[in-house]
Specification:
The protein is mainly beta and 118 residues long. Helices cover 0% and strands 54% of the residues. The mean pLDDT is 95.
Length: 118
Amino acid sequence: VQLQASGGGLVQAGDSLRLSCTASGLTFSSFVMGWFRQAPGKEREFVAAIGWSSGTTYYADSVKARFAISRDKAKNTAYLQMNSLKPEDTAVYYCAARPIREYEYRHWGQGTQVTVSS
C-alpha cells in the first residue's frame, strides 16, 4: 500500500492550496481517507476525512468553513482544498487510510509541508 501526498508549498495568509493524495494497493472493500497535520512542537491532529464509497465528509471545527475534502475514484486520489489559509495552518500534512469499520488509520503517506506566512 502506498499513499503519495503532494501539493504543499509556501503561501501567504489568505491564499489557497490544494493537496493531493494518490493511493495504490489498497485492498479494503470500503475505506476512509483522511488528512492530518502536525505543526512543530505539537501533536498530530485530524483535519478532514471522506468515506471513499459514500463521499461522506468529516472536518475538524478549525477548518470546517475553509477546507474541503473530495475524492476522484477513477484516479484513486483524494484532495484537500484549503482556502483562506492562516499562519496557524502551517504544518506537515499527511494523508492516511483506514478500513471503514475501524478507527485506526493503518496506512500513511509521507507528508507534505504547508507553510503560511503572515
